[in-house]
Amino acid sequence: MNFGALPVAEAEGALLAHSVRQGGLSFKKGRRLSAEDVAVLRAAGIGSVIAATLEPGDLHEDEAAARIARALAGPADGRSGAKVTAAFTGRCNLVAEDRGLFLVEPARIDAVNALHEAITVATLPAFEPVEPRQMLATVKIIPFSAPAAAVEQAVALLEDPSGREPAARVAAFRPRQVGLVQTALPGTKPALLEKGRSALDARLSALGCPPAEERRCGHDAAAIAAALHELQDAGCGLLLVSGASAIVDRRDVVPAGIVAAGGRIAHFGMPVDPGNLLLLAELDGRPVLGLPGCARAPKVNGFDWVLQRLIADLPVAPADVTAMGVGGLLKEIGGRPLPRAEAVEGGAGEDAEAAGPKRLPRIAALVLAGGQGRRMGGPNKLLLPYRGEPLLRSVVRAAQESDAAEVLVVTGHQREAVKAALAGLAVPAVHNPDYAEGLSTSLKAGLAALAPEVDGVVVLLGDMPRVEPAVIDKLIAAFDPLEGRAICQPSWHGKRGNPVLFARRFFAELKGLGGDVGAKPLLADYPELVCEVPVERDSVLADVDTPEAYRALSEEAAKGIPQR
């Protein structure tokens, strides 16, 4: 890759390394300069730019990041429980599709990171509990390109021909019925047993399991054995024993009760504090845990680490327990800036704190389908046939197939007919009674109906059926208000189109728009926050406003030109 000052006259096809702002001109770094861009720069009196040009053997940063991320996630068969997002600015993320534990092979990640300074892969720690849409890993290409040979080496390291699991994946939680034995000694307060039961049920609920099936008995081996057999007969797949007195030896009362039931003690003790006194055992193929006293408390302890793995159907052997020492000091330390119990979950929006898990931004897709379409001269254009279905249906399906967290349709003109055209798509609709007053009223009605936790909205026009899910995904991948990308708009050969993604911070201004003008004024007011996202097809420019436009669309479909 060549990098440095480049005469503007020679800059077509180069990637801007530094943003250019002069007067009303605003080109952001990373922009691939088109012939039109070069003409604009020359007209503005700019003679040279700092830019990068790719050489033979270089891969563009987005292509390189995407290839490595796909190899990291493994085959696209759902086995990894992770999804690869669209690449933008050399970054491609893996996000969770399931609730579960994140699994990763550090040696393979380290080997990739050691290949070339242009290539980096960062992941969550192994066995981190994750939620759907939470980020698991990010592949970032540092400069504007990476050597194709190094990328191929990275892919080879991550793609395992022996058929092992992907290098990064999510082991989904598999809810099951858990059995709990609680023992009591003379003087044991019922409140203590209730506290233990309540803490366990809270843990199980967080993992998607029903409340525990419980038995209470005296603190002796025979009683424990009988209680374990009752829970076996009740169909419990995981058995827990919480003793009135802490286990202090593998021959103590609780392990003796497990052995009396026919069980086997696998390991006693763990290098996690709190949680040292955990007992690992097995009974007729079922895992059995003797619980440490800290299991009665809600704070994270070693029992949580083992419970999470078992609910995720991951085997827990003595070697797994003894390997938990690094990072196993969970006790609160006065020098910690933020105690674990006080940590709060963060988001991906512009006010997110670094303390919480990073997730894919929650972007809603708003499909505007309330207009009268007067320029069509009669029929409702949204109901016209296109590739064997109503034109609007194609737009809504694209939104549903994208990374948008939710999809909402705004109806207006011919409300019932529009809703009928979407039958079977399970998409909620909100009606705009003021549709005759223009596009802005549909936008206002849709924004008012969005969930309060969305980070932004991508606004789709109901008469643009050629827009692909990949376009929406690219806008979401580009969205990052903290880096100045709060409005994301697709562009084809330098021409901006639709749909457009807006951060939540603009919702109030969008609601304040009037008439039939849409959001163009907002784009003009915040040029420094607008990010142009290059796309590969002109679908972002093609709306169906007139009979001529519809005829052209139909002719294209008849010729078999792929829509997506």
UniProtKB/TrEMBL annotation:
Keywords: Magnesium, Nucleotidyltransferase, Transferase. Transmembrane segments: none annotated. It comes from the Bacteria. One of its GO terms (molecular function) is nucleotidyltransferase activity. Residues 179-312 form the MoaB/Mog domain. SUPFAM superfamilies: Molybdenum cofactor biosynthesis proteins, Nucleotide-diphospho-sugar transferases. SMART domains: MoCF_biosynth. PANTHER family: MOLYBDENUM COFACTOR CYTIDYLYLTRANSFERASE (PTHR43777:SF1). This is Molybdopterin molybdochelatase /molybdenum cofactor cytidylyltransferase.
